[in-house]
Fold:
Amino acid sequence: METKRYTRREFIRNASLTALAGVSLPLLSSCAKEETEDFLQKHFREMTAEEKKQVIAKLEQRYLQKFGRKLQISTKEAVPDTLWGYGLELSRCIGCRRCVYACVKENNQSRHDPQLQWIRVLRLKRGNLINLENSDHYYNPDTVPEKGFIYLPVQCQQCQNPPCVKVCPVHATWQEPDGIVAVDYNWCIGCRYCIAACPYKGRVFNWAEPNIPKEEINPSVHYLGNRPRMKCAVEKCTFCIQRVRDGRYPACVEACPTGTRKFGNLLDPNSEIRYIIDRKRVFRLKEDLNTESKFYYFFEA
Amino acid sequence: MEKLRELWNETWHFYKRTLILVATGSKLYYAWCFSLLAIIIAGFLFYMRQHDAGLIATNMNDQVSWGLYIANFTYLVGAAAAAVLLVVPSYVYHFKPIKEIVVLGELFAASSVMMAVLFVMVDLGRLDRFWHMLPFIGSMNFPESLLAWDVIALNGYLILNIFIPVYLLVKFYYRKKPNWKFILPFILLSVPWAVGIHTVTAFLYNGLPARPFWNASILAPRFLASAFCSGPAIIIIIFQIIRKVSDIKLEDEALFKVAELIAYAMFLNLFLLGSELFKEYYSNSIHMAPVEYLFQGLHGHNLLVPWIWAAMTMNVIAFIIFLVPQTRKRLTTLNLGCIFVIIGVWIEKGPGFVIPGFVPDPLGEIHEYLPNLLELMVSFGIWALGLLVFTLLMKVAIPIETGEFTHTEFQKELMASRPH
Structure:
């Protein structure tokens, strides 16, 4: 049973918001219907179970209209005693970018204007690794791998000490108990401070209303993950929160044709990721910034 | 009850007369106000387009995610800070035309902060969620996020700089002596607060190790030094306009004194910049890339190079103008120097500071940014709004200061004493 508490904080909030709503009525009238409906929506972490249910119902209705099919929106919480970690074997990556497109499809990213991708594969001339200025982000050969190059895929590194969470002025992004850095897309104000703070370019912005063809929508979504987003909110890789909390691998791990990508629970001594950390030579990108990322790159032998 | 009614009448009367005062003026005044209004409306229409389409209507992108808006914001915070820093010591040390200067300076600061806040607002993707940032109502990430600090610092400064001049003006209106014991602590508080807003704004960039260009501890002092150049330069120009269109007497000597201050500040600014450049070029690490992009161009990308060199040239010429007594004490050269400083510092700490932070981006990508027409128009709109607000404030504040606009009781006296 949830007991209804009406705190002073809530009173101040409600009173002020009513006043604010009155003042901003002219501006709001120019907003879309959805924006007006969502205006007073609470922060996800402050919602009661009942409020979450209502929000999900509202979203399901909205998505049904927009995409013509029912989306399953999960709010599943973190599995106890898990801390997700990622391994990426650089010596295996052939730079085919299948992970990039599997991710776009799985996570309902905007397809064009703007085209958003959560994974970036950098091509580096052999002999380079740290100075990313030598990297090519838009290589486009007929076949991969190319002689003389190595490939470095980068996505959100799910830092244990995330600079993006620290700078967000409104707590719109935070770290979940299983280590995933999540965003409440409905709470983000679009200031883009987190984009400035991220050393890995792990965050991308919906510069316009996202654009996904109806037939390509992935209907199995998580509220903090791949549910269709709105314009001018930030988004990022969540290790496929909708999959990993259901015991599946992230889409990029499944899509990789060379077995470059590994995934597992850092707290489980028998997991594959722990095996890799214990036995391979691992390193993390920009370790000197003390972000304590949970994304381990390694080489065979 | 009777007293209350009287108070009500007088207040109503005051507002009515203020409106009349603001609405009547010379042809030039009308032309000025209406051209500003036209720019504001144009800016607003462009902003509505951005509001509908999203920030894709600007030239910003995932590589360069802040642009002209945040550049203007940074500059204006400096201008606001400098106005008070300049004005208050002159009050404390009983510099002669104190009364006028305190009020005008603080109103200038208030207008600048208002513009700075507006520049942040138009940069927000989701203006409808602005309330998430408000303390107690939303969920402000204080004290972790420097942006939360900035919200508090700027709004506090805005309130302070409205409260102090309004208090003084009301007293002058009633021809009463201000209670200095009451208001002086607020005036004194506005000094460290002015340093505070600019320091917090510097720290906002400074605290990001992901951006080596901003991650330099010399940043806050540099910000203050350059603010001490551009703020007073704007004030010198404004004071000359004010003494031309009103009865307020401002000695040339006061302007020259301020100009001398700019010379010292500019020396400090150039010195700090030089220190930064020495560190970057002598150590010559890969973190120098943004500096290289700004001053020389990087891998053939050099959009900002002519701008920064124009800024450097203007700053150095202005420094010489303000240093040499002969050029400092001639209004033509003085004004040229002021304009050079205003533009030079704007380039240096506006676009010349914000954009290179993003080039190259953390994964080494080089994407060049220049604002598009929409960003320019929205920015002009905000500048025009700031100027209009400042003009209207001056239209009321100046007659109160000279004693022309006063409580009805004294108004009759004033009329009687006039030789008709």
Chain A touches chain B through 58 residues (CB under 8 Å). Residues 85 and 178 of chain A are 10 Å apart (CA to CA). Chain A has a mean pLDDT of 92.
